[in-house]
Amino acid sequence: xxxxxxxxxxxxxxxxxxxxxFGFLGPIVILVLLIALGAEVTIASVVSLFVxxxxxxxxxxxxxxxxxxxxxxxxxxxxxxxxxxxxxxMVAVWMACGTIPTLLYYGxxxxxxxxxxxxxxxxxxxxxxxxxxxxxxxxxxxxxxCGMAAGLGIPVGMAAGAVISGAFFGDKMSPLSDTTLxxxxxxxxxxxxxxxxxxxxxxxxxxICLVVYTILGISASGSIDSVAVAELSNGMASTFHxxxxxxxxxxxxxxxxxxxxxxxxxxxxxxxxGFIWAMIFQGESFTALLGYLxxxxxxxxxxxxxxxxxxxxxxxxxxxxxxxxFVLGMLSGLFTESGVLNVLVTKLSKKLNTPGxxxxxxxxxxxxxxxxxxxxxxxxxxxxxxxxxxxxxxINRCVLSRTLEDVGTMIAAIVPWSAWVIGYGVVxxxxxxxxxxxxxxxxxxxxxxxxxxxxxxxxxxxxxxxVKYRPFYVRKKG
Length: 478
Description:
Layout lengths: L16 H20 L4 H19 L3 H35 L1 H9 L8 H16 L2 H16 L6 H18 L4 H9 L4 H27 L9 H13 L8 H11 L4 H19 L4 H10 L8 H7 L8 H20 L1 H10 L5 H19 L1 H18 L4 H13 L9 H9 L5 H4 L4 H16 L22
Helix pairs in contact: 1-2, 1-16, 2-15, 3-8, 3-12, 3-13, 3-15, 4-5, 4-10, 5-6, 5-7, 5-9, 6-7, 6-14, 7-9, 8-9, 8-18, 8-19, 9-19, 9-22, 11-12, 15-18, 17-18, 17-19, 17-22, 18-19, 19-22
């Protein structure tokens, strides 16, 4: 006999291909439209999440199911989110202890007139790898380099293209970069496996860039006006104790990474070393360092370019990115629970049924989303859509994460209607995007190399293959 508390059985609607397509594209379209209208990625992601919730409720899913699916999505990225927060803390403390300033200081010493244009690639790349930010590299040393270009007889647009290429090398390859962290965590790939995988396309792309920039810049003449460079390097030296001893924390972290110590522990050790170094060598107080860990390093050196480069990092600097990651993790859980991806992938696999064609689907999806919505959605949403099918096709997920960066990260540097790209021209001398985009070679080469390598099987590792750089590895057909 009923006690009046019978549970209602929800009527589930059948997930047709059309509904699955709507369920997948609806949140994405809303996301990119809001971003195009000027909304922050975090807010656009939240709205997109609510659109997906409404779709799932319409399909007949109970709130309990959806709540559990979102919780599972967050659980899967919790460790990655914590690593991002640790990276923010490590950047701040490495600034305070003089590690990153030392690397930047010595990096400034390699500028020479005859190889100026390749240096316009190498130096921003070095700085971006050290600091994890392409914009910080472009807006500091990039400004200095582009200011020197005219005196050397090199078009400013050409120098700007080399600077942006180098800066995005760092944006792609630095373990401190937000896009590197996002790609590895979205595809659920260990951070340093992801970076090793990217060597397949980044190394040949970089070699081509250096050859081309050398050829273009070989006729450079004149001498470098060293005033701007001296101001930046002297500002570093007067603000920090500069010594090669400050490179030790970097070396230890790199050794731990090579030894494949978990990134969580590696970055924790890096923070601890930086804390000790800052107190011993830079005279920082314990309480000041605690503040830097939370809010980022801050100093007033009296040199604007120095302050712009070193005042960054901290736990709070990563909160926005972590927020995006959590929301997209919840969205990923809903995509999985609703089954929209299974329906679409099953349909898609009839057309894309080889490793090469599957990765072409990744390539094209990331390209379309990046052109409309920017780096973060291109990386995170495409990873959600294709990570399971990569498992089914015996494709190592590091190939997925690599392709996401080859397209999602790099294309963002040359989207002419992007506010960021337009801003690069303003910062680097008030030049048009069409002055530098034709010379921004690496962001063009990486997507092309990814497309070629994925179809030819170069670097197309199997799921259980160790992630090593074997430049002549080709996946056998069948």
